[in-house]
Amino acid sequence: MTAAKQFAKEYTLEQLNLLYSSHISLTGAIGVDRLSRSIFESRLEQEINLISTKVAEGKYKFSQYREKLISKGANKIPRVISIPTFRDRLTLRALCNVLKHTFSEQLNVKLPQHTISEIRTYLKAGGFSHFIKLDVKTFYPTIEHSVLMRILHHKIRKPEIRSLIRAAIESPTVAYPDRERPNEDIGVPQGLSISNILAEIYLSEFDKWARALPDVVYHRYVDDILVLTKEEPDALAERFRARMWEKYRLATHEIGKIGKSSVGEISDTFNFLGYVFKAGMASVKIDSIRRVEGSIAKILTTYKYRCDSARSEPNPFKQLHLLDKAKKICLWRLNLRATGCINEGVRKGWVFYFSQIDDDALSQLHHLDKTLTVLARRFGLVLAPKEVKSFARTFHEAKRGNDVQRYIPNFDTKSLEYKRQILTMYGIDNVAMMTEVMIDRMFKRKIRRETSEMEEDIQGGSRG
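Structure (tokenized):
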């Protein structure tokens, strides 16, 4: 199917309704127009008609995106995330499907774990003497629109599709509505459903060139590049950097022995995607350990606040109920952090991401188990034996690869009763009166919220 035919299919009224139900209805972030999901749903038919009509005419206009700042740590510029309105979110999701279909052959769909697995195989097999590690400076904000549109034009000839993409990436991201703010002429906003796929398309030609080089193993994940080579790395590294700039106007960090861009011998220690490689062995970068420890402490802090609030309740029976509820929520969230889960057919979680560490690095997971127990005691959470799950055991269960085993929860197969219990645990009223469809949708929203926090635990330590 051509891009034009896929475009026509995605923006039919029927398909837009399906996309809203399966994706957008599960999100909750509010855009610059301040319209909530419930208000948008009250006029869903009107909104979908508008999207379908305007897109077909090539006249669709995106609202400005609402700015959300994500801290990257002390003394670092925060990452700017762009939050679209619900209408734009639906329009972008359909556009994402068009791009996925059109560029399916060029896109790198490997999980980071699979990339790490391949790297470990090459390192242990020998044959390569040096590595090159490159990192692009401010990747998304410096993507050139003219270069991107040239690449897109190879497979997208329909003007209405190209104009919709251009409108999406030109719309500015603002802290508050600003009619005087001009459109952006460079960069792709982060946080949109099309952001990652456009970034992949942008460097797909570079990937093809790099993989064709002789005696080189090349891996890229977003803006992180790792090259294994049999030759002296300095000249090859500069060749990579020069092509990245000349063809794509992307600057990479200066080469050093340490830092975001570096070269060295295979026997040296180097980082990639949150992993540390030393003498061919893989372990978890210490920043990633610290981040998941911080996540555990955050859950326990919320537990302490809930307990403090419960103890101010004068009714002793209600107080006991609130204390029990606080503990149940805390244990559920701690266990989810330890095990991860299967959700929407995808394995998610910190241990799953770092499932490629070598057995010698398992002490890191035992350390996390001990840290969880110590922190729980410090925050006043009394744990019975095996009441909280183990990072180390999760690692072994994940290696088994049995999706039906019980230790790692599979939310795709959970019963309606289980979903009711979780929603009730969180204090959602009238669960017993809800339809199965309503319960399923609310449960999916809750799980998406929890899994998005788990993804933050990974992302913070997987870069650089």
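The chain has 18 helices and twelve strands. The longest strand covers residues 65-70.
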